[in-house]
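Researcher: Can you fold this with acetoacetyl-coenzyme A in place?
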Amino acid sequence: MVDFTLTDEQKDLRELAHSFAEKEVRPVAWKLDKEGTWPGEIIEKAWEIGLLNTHIEEAYGGPGLDYLTGTIIEEEFGWGCSGVGTSLACNGLATAPIALGGSEETKKRYLGMLTEEPKLASFCLTEPDAGSDVSGMKTTAVRKGDEYVINGSKCFITNGSHASYYTVYAKTDKDAGHKGISAFVVDRDLDGVTVDKKEDKLGQRASNTATISFNDVVIPAANLLAEENHGFKLAMMTLDRTRPGVAAMAVGIARAAFEFATGYSKERVQFGVPIAMHQAIQFMIADMATKIEAARLMTWKSAVLLDQGQRNTLVSSHAKRFAADTAMEVTTDAVQVYGGYGFIKDYPVEKLMRDAKIMQLYEGTSQIQRLVIAREVLMPRRDPDPAPSAPVVQETAGVVA
Ligand code: CAA
């Protein structure tokens, strides 16, 4: 049975997230964008009312919400301002590898840290020469007794300047390609950790994007996530879990642009009638509505599969790709509906068009999503669904369990 009825709890949380986006985010969103200001106070408020760390299990102080509810909340964040939304959602990306591959002690310490105080964590995968090609990373982690020594540099790290710790991917076997990558938790205040560069971006200018360098950083071996050399799969399993949220944020951006465009089309008069009466505009509005509806359905499906304990790689990439492209197309058309005014910063939609662009880039470009989709369609893997809360990632005959 397919049932699109939300539970009362999901409706309440959607209302809470919408009201937060409307009252706390929207009034300052365009100012934050203009000034490139990071929304620290908004993040604290979200933490206070329980809109941060929504997937952290109750055992570690979180609400342990399911993935579908997470996407419903993230759509509202995207509707409010996706720059702020990305800042709010970032802990989810950083903590997923801990939830999947951390020991009980690591989970208590690092997941608990975020639920006890309004602290942040960042996910450090990308490097200057290793973006789409994760296996090309150069950061190394060398085991020395009960410790690892980490050296390297990670770029485009969301909340990087403000995180208390990082989940870092590094080569533990330089010659083994993706089978030589491991994942670690690295505390921010350790010697050798530096925040090097804050990016000045086209869109999502409220979010913080930094370069983080690790220079002979010594961490306890206990901070290894999953087994040594299983970090690549941990990263892929993490992205399977977070791409539905990115897709939801893209739906939120598109919905915001759609609302602005429809509102404006009913007010703007040309040739003696509101432009909404012209078929040229009506067809654009109709296509926007259809794409948003389809993107949301794919997004929800990708989350529901996770909630059912099924592998969602294919649908997650469908959702992320389609929703990101939808956000780009709908915001571009919203600017078109506004005409010349859409191009001017006094009007709201040019920001949304700039914000939408990153949805086609981060957490896997639209081209990488197509690559995943093509592989899943043409050469489907036969492995069973991974256990979402497995304490370690184990390899059994090519199976991620
Ligand atoms: N779940 C479990 N295992 C998976 C998997 C998944 N979803 N996807 C792949 N694997 C396994 C494969 O089965 C394979 O296993 P075996 O070794 O047993 O054969 C192994 O991982 C290697 O897989 P591939 O051969 O497919 O690896 P690849 O090198 O060709 O890369 C890729 C595949 C899809 C291109 C991948 O590298 C990828 O997703 N790249 C994009 C990276 C990305 O999204 N970066 C975003 C960074 S985060 C960010 O942007 C947030 C921010 O803060 C800005």
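Model: Folded with acetoacetyl-coenzyme A in place. The first strand starts at residue 121 and ends at 124.
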